[in-house]
Amino acid sequence: MIQRESPASTRQRNPGSSVGPVRTCVGCRKRELANELFRVVAVIDGNGQCAVTVDTAASLPGRGAWLHPDRQCVQVAIQRRAFVRALRIAGSPDTSAVVEYVEELSASTARSEEQVAKNMSTP
C-alpha cells in the first residue's frame, strides 16, 4: 500500500513558525515574510515606456515582484534583469523610482538611529 502525505490543511503546524505569506526577493532570492519586503509593479506611461514603481499598499493591479529594502538587493536585481523576468515585461524598464525609494528608506533609518543615539547620550 502506498502511503501518501496528508494535505497541507490537515498537517499540524509548528506553533513557533512564522505566520503570513512568504515571498522571494528578486534581488537576493531569499524567502522572507511579505511584511519584510516591499512590492514593485510595472506601469506603462503615456509614451509606451515601462517603469517599475513601488507599491507600498501592495494593492496595485498587475504582476508584482518583491524586494528587500536594501541597496544591494536593488542593484543585484537591476544587474540580473530580475524585474524584466519577474514582471514579464519587454525591454529595459526605468527603475529610478525603486532606487530612490530604497535610498529614502536608508536615509530615514540612518537619521532615526542617529536621533536614538543622541537621546541616549544626553543626561
TrEMBL record:
Region: Disordered, residue numbers: 1-21
Superkingdom field: Bacteria
InterPro entries: YlxR (IPR037465), YlxR-like_sf (IPR035931), YlxR_dom (IPR007393)
Domain YlxR as annotated: residue spans: 23-101
SUPFAM superfamilies found in the cross-reference section: YlxR-like (SSF64376)
Biased composition (Polar residues): 1-17
Membrane spanning stretches: none
The protein, known as: YlxR domain-containing protein
Species per Swiss-Prot/TrEMBL record: Mycobacterium aquaticum
